[in-house]
Amino acid sequence: MSGTSSLLPIGVFDSGVGGLTVARAVADRLPVEPLLYLGDTARVPYGGKSPATVLHYTRQALAFFRRRGVKLVVIACNTASAAALPALSSESPVPLVGVVEPGARAAAERSRGAVGVIGTRTTVASGSYEAALNTLRPGLSIHARPCPLFVPLAEEGWLTGPVPRWVAQSYLEPLKDSGVDTLVLGCTHYPLLKGVIAQVMGPGVELVDSAEETARAVAERLTERGLARPLGAPPAEHRFFSTDISDTIKALAAKFFGRPIEKLEPAELEGEA
Ligand code: DGL
Predict the structure, then answer these.
(1) pLDDT tens, position by position, for the chain (273 residues)?
(2) Three-state secondary structure of the chain
(3) Comparing 10-98+212-266 with 101-210, is the CATH topology the same?
(4) What is the C-alpha to C-alpha distance for residues 154 and 130, in angstroms, rounded to an integer?
(5) Assigned CATH for 10-98+212-266
(6) Which residue minimizes the CA distance to atom 7 of ligand 1?
(7) 173 forms bridges with which residues in the sheet?
(8) CATH of domain 101-210
(9) How many angstroms separate the alpha carbon of residue 157 from the centre of ligand 1?
């Protein structure tokens, strides 16, 4: 790759604004790297859609990034990573980093033998976390469960109190009973509910936040490929694109990114490849 490539931004894609938890982790770890974020807010959620539809939408997102020029794309959405990344890796001219492998790697390294995985229905049905965990550490006992109501709870800001606690208990008690010692938060939204999830699972269960692990994987991949932005380059300026824009989306975006977002720019994916 040329020196010019290293100056290009990193593309970060998600079905909506949830992937800003991953963008935030990347921005914190790599403060000199500019990010070009794309959230498909017009078509979110992806979590219950068929793998073929998620693949089609993700391919369109990659075409969007190709037109703008990025040096690497983070598929920050677990559902898109699970349903589309294997097929798209061979088509993409730039490296793709998904969230499944980094999360699975961290869990495989830390677990004492039994791992729980929570995510959307499509992520869990894909079996991609199981496949990654089995490759990284054969013999692990793996228990996966979809937790679809966590997404609207996080978006509504219902992060504490009786309702999230009751929902978390209903979803997580069976995982707790099966004796998992490590739990992968396999969805962009779940880190916001870490508090209630930790309460229900108890102190003996370690939570793996894929966002932090993915940021580490991005840093490694940039270094491997000689794509890290040189020291002394102009300061990073991030841009945020969204296929639908409203006051609610703007407020949610700032909440997930953990800091104000000055401008959300419109994006159109329907016409992309
Ligand atoms: N971004 C999705 C994920 O991480 C959650 C929201 C959705 O269902 O689109 O799986």
Answers:
(1) 445 699 999 999 999 999 999 999 999 999 999 999 999 999 999 999 999 999 999 999 999 999 999 999 999 999 999 999 999 999 999 999 999 999 999 999 999 999 999 999 999 999 999 999 999 999 999 999 999 999 999 999 999 999 999 999 999 999 999 999 999 999 999 999 999 999 999 999 999 998 989 999 999 999 999 999 988 888 789 999 999 999 999 999 999 999 999 999 999 998 877
(2) CCHHHHHCCEEEEECCCCCHHHHHHHHHHCCCCCEEEEECCCCCCCCCCCHHHHHHHHHHHHHHHHHHCCCEEEECCHHHHHHHHHHHHCCCCCCEEECHHHHHHHHHHHCCCEEEEEECHHHHHHCHHHHHHHHHCCCCEEEEEECCCHHHHHHHCCCCCHHHHHHHHHHHHHHHHCCCCEEEEECCCHHHHHHHHHHHHCCCCEEEEHHHHHHHHHHHHHHHCCCCCCCCCCCCCCEEEECCCCHHHHHHHHHHHCCCCCCEEECCCCCCC
(3) yes
(4) 25
(5) 3.40.50.1860
(6) 45
(7) none
(8) 3.40.50.1860
(9) 16
Q: How far is the CA of 226 from the centre of ligand 1 (A)?
A: 31
Domain positions in the chain are 10-98+212-266, 101-210
CA 241 to ligand 1 center in whole angstroms:
17
Q: At 42, which amino acid appears?
A: A
Q: Give yes or no for a contact between 243 and 221, defined as CB atoms under 8 angstroms apart.
A: no
Catalytic residue (one of 35, 77, 82, 132): 77
Chain CA centroid to CA 89, Å: 16
147 is catalytic: no
